[in-house]
Design a protein that fits this description.
The protein has about 325 residues and is mainly alpha-helical. It has one domain. It is built from twelve helices and two strands; from the N terminus they run H-E-E-H-H-H-H-H-H-H-H-H-H-H. The chain has a two-stranded antiparallel ribbon. Helix 1 packs parallel to helix 7, helix 4 packs across helix 5 and helix 6 packs antiparallel against helix 7. It is globular.
Length: about 325
């Protein structure tokens, strides 16, 4: 417990202390997120807050991680660094969607193949059990891609992506800690600490945005935590019968549901699912009069309620036998 507490504090302090310098550099170099008709802000706000999230996450977690772990954290952090630099490039000089997708595919492939973060079964969900390695690799890469882009898409108002990522990492981190998966708990706690340090400057009257630098990184780590939870939870009777994948979806419900919803709307309107618009749930909340803070807390509450509901229902009989 002491290690986790120290990890959280170190990550928080790194993000908290580094952001003022990041803001100053962004202002001097005119690295702003400019307002437009799709954006929810009306003032120019410095980007690159994700640099602080990345720094807190990487420095704190690598310092406290145990060397004898079954997971290949070298591969995981290599993929994280790829997305970090992809995000920086996109925040300073926008990348084309195809280049961003190539970088994401590369990072996801490294995590799944070299890092061995892979779904090996659906454990009875939809009556699917063991799946071939080649199919598991494809499903795992697709799953991580979806979660990365889901966090990228909900990063539209103050505090939303950071707050939801804190809930996700906190939920999985508690489970990893309780069940003795120390290294995964450290990564989750490090992300939570870095996010709190960031939210200090982003939640109320945002002084900085995380940008793609932050959203890509938190999406990747959230996806890794979710897949590892699904795989490791099968040792516990309570999550058998296809319950683990459902619980993981409940933890990620806000970004996943919003992404699915806007993609369907765009396809029905005969537009590219990756085209921008103001159809996200957070935009709709702003349009009916909610402030950024209230809209974010509404979605935090919804996410927590789904987690609580899913946890309450895991004690029901297995979905399948």
């Amino acid at each position: 417990m002491l290690v986790l507490t120290t990890t959280f504090v170190v990550a928080l302090l790194i993000a908290w202390v580094s952001i003022p310098s990041i803001i100053r550099v962004a202002q001097e170099k005119h690295l702003y997120d400019e307002p437009n008709e799709r954006k929810a802000h009306v003032l120019r706000v410095p980007t690159l807050g994700g640099v602080a999230i990345f720094a807190g996450l990487i420095i704190a977690s690598t310092f406290f991680l145990e060397p004898d772990t079954d997971l290949h954290f070298g591969a995981i952090f290599s993929a994280t660094i790829i997305l970090f630099f992809t995000g920086i490039k996109d925040d300073i000089i926008p990348l084309s969607p195809i280049k961003k997708m190539i970088a994401q595919l590369l990072a996801c492939t490294i995590v799944v193949i070299q890092g061995e973060v892979q779904l090996t079964s659906l454990y009875g969900l939809f009556n699917v059990y063991e799946i071939p390695d080649w199919l598991g690799i494809g499903i795992s890469i697709f799953t991580i891609l979806v979660i990365i882009n889901a966090f990228n898409l909900i990063d539209g108002i103050n505090g939303l992506a950071g707050g939801i990522a804190f809930i996700v990492a906190g939920t999985f981190g508690i489970w990893f800690f309780i069940n003795g998966y120390q290294s995964l708990a450290i990564i989750a706690v490090a992300l939570c600490g870095a996010l709190i340090g960031f939210l200090r400057y982003n939640l109320v009257r945002a002084k900085v945005f995380m940008g793609d630098t932050g959203s890509l990184v938190i999406g990747l780590i959230s996806a890794i935590l979710a897949i590892q939870f699904i795989e490791l939870s099968q040792a516990l009777t309570v999550f058998r019968g296809g319950k683990a994948p459902i619980f993981a979806v409940a933890v990620l419900i806000v970004p996943l549901f919003d992404t699915l919803r806007v993609f369907i709307i765009r396809v029905l309107q005969k537009r590219s699912p990756f085209s921008g618009d103001r159809n996200h749930i957070h935009h709709l909340l702003l349009d009916i009069g909610f402030s950024h803070l209230k809209a974010s807390f509404v979605l935090y509450t919804a996410n927590l309620l789904f987690i609580a509901l899913a946890f309450a229902l895991i004690h029901l009989p297995p979905l399948v036998y």
